[in-house]
Amino acid sequence: MYIKIKHEVMKSYATVAGSKSINSRLAIGSNADLELYEDGWLIKKDKPGFDLVGNEFKCLLELQESGLVPEVDESSFDGWSFVIKEVAYGATLDEYCRVCPDNVLLEIMASVGKMLNQFWSLGFVHRDLHANNILIGYSQGQWRSYLIDFGHSYNTNWSEEDLELYCNNRGDILQELPIWEDDFTTLQDALDFINPDLIASLEKELTV
Q1: d(CA 44, CA 36)
Q2: What is the separation of C-alpha 6 from the centre of its chain, rounded to a whole number of angstroms?
Q3: Is residue 13 part of a domain?
Q4: CA 78, 71, 199, 113 torsion: positive or negative?
Q5: CATH number of the domain bearing residue 161
Q6: What would the pLDDT profile of 136-156 be if each residue is shown by its tens digit?
């Protein structure tokens, strides 16, 4: 039975991870451009009319030691772009949800739940938590989940000055900022096409 399950896991991983080229995955974003920079690294910059990568870079720096996000070159930010590590063979949660059998998705969703629980426990709110902003990888016999795209994100633990600056840049009202439960609702709505039991397996990992 164990061998059969592992075969299904590896088959699912190979099917999804190899289904698209890196360039096609980089073209998904609507607010910023991702381009190949050098071996294993990408450069991310705002699309015309947007000003989000500065906030994203701030969040990524704060999350570097968490293991929840790709590695970033801490000296690379120039005011409009930065350099970030590519997640090797990382496909989105949306891609996995559309092709994997439920028993494999149960493992993946548990991984996502643990990752989100840690993220929210650190005080972060993503604000754009759909299934294309969660990357799934597989290494050393385990599923790994990563968050991406923090242009709209903030941390409830930021100083009052930082929170006021964040709100002023976006026209938000501090007292009306969304909280982690709003993130969860956004993701749940985005995944309403899958088995509700899979959402429940994610929710069981939450302790925030």
Answers
A1: 9
A2: 25
A3: yes
A4: negative
A5: 1.10.510.10
A6: 988 888 899 999 999 999 999
- H helices of 27-179, in order, are 53-63, 93-99, 102-121, 160-170
Model confidence over 42-70: pLDDT tens digits? 999 999 989 999 999 999 999 999 999 99
The residues that bridge with 173 in the sheet, in sequence order, are: none
Distance of CA 7 to the CA centre of its chain: 26
Reading the block at residue 161, the tokens are 């000055």
Which amino acid would we find at residue 194?
I
Domain tally, the chain: 1
Cα(55)–Cα(39) distance, rounded to whole angstroms? 25
Does residue 208 sit within a domain? no
Q: Is residue 30 part of a domain?
A: yes
| Residue 144 belongs to domain spanning | 2-203
